[in-house]
Amino acid sequence: MVWPDFEGERKAREKNEAYPMVLATTQIHTLSDDDQVRCLETERLVLLTFKQGLVDPGKSLSSWTNSSNRDCCTWTGITCDNRTNHVVVLALGGPYKRIGGDIGASLVKLQYLEVLDFSGNDFTRIPKFIGSFKRLTYLSLRWNPMWRPSYEAATVT
Description:
alpha/beta; Leucine-rich repeat, LRR (right-handed beta-alpha superhelix); four-stranded mixed beta sheet; two-stranded antiparallel sheet; leucine-rich repeat; transmembrane; transmembrane helix
């Protein structure tokens, strides 16, 4: 009488089941790699366009680049929503940054913006479009040599 080789079958089954597990682990590791870019391309381009209109003598925005660091979610002053990857915080405030220039209308495309902090810089004009951010919960323009704000900007509080 020949006994069935249960041990051999079990080892073969374990070997075949291990391959998909190794493959799944490899895929999970690949997806969680640190070089994974979270930043939405359209919002990255908006930020780069915005930067072009600025004067940044202290190089505060040196991480905002089109080549070496394409993930705008890791740029100085930028925070992205962990779920949607939309830019939700643009925080360029702080003592002695002295960023100035034009707060360009391209920022209007950052529709998920919740925090906008330009405090402690050299902006001289509050653009009218500041009032169009529907999700904005915090706006700081203090310590800037601002002229009188327009009515539209004054309604965002």
